[in-house]
Amino acid sequence: MTNKEIVSIEQEINATEQEVFDAFTKANEIEKWFATKAETNLEGDGKYWFSFEYNESRNAALRNHTRSGKFIQLIPNQSIVFTWLDRTLVNIVLSKTDKGTKIELTHSGWVIPQDNDLIESHLEGWMDFLSNLQSVLEKGIDMRPKTLGMRTKEYPSVVSLN
Known about the structure:
Blueprint: E1 3-13, H1 17-25, H2 27-30, E2 37-40, E3 47-52, H3 60-63, E4 65-75, E5 79-84, E6 88-96, E7 101-112, H4 116-139, H5 144-148
């Protein structure tokens, strides 16, 4: 029998539940803080496709990747559940706070010990991306080019932002 591990993160953002929900589900909003390119089909089969593209100066060839999966559950302004890596689930619960919106993200289905490296990298990734979501929604600043070396629409081929 294998042990299952859950990645769990909470983040509070000064934004409405609608703004946060849209940031996780609408392709044009996802591209502002998460993936370099995104496609979502919320009305049809629920499938999504994300492309993460990095700068040449930061080992882009090794880091560039795509992810695809399916939205399993969408309750507007409350919760989002989607598949990840074809075998794990990401569950996002949104709740209103005095400051704005609390995000409770759990990423489950990891198998121990095989997924130990993936667990660590996804925990770090979710923390980085949720911090960026906060920066984008609160300040309008996308930190991906500087902090992660990612390409974005505004910085399609950045070499350095020092």
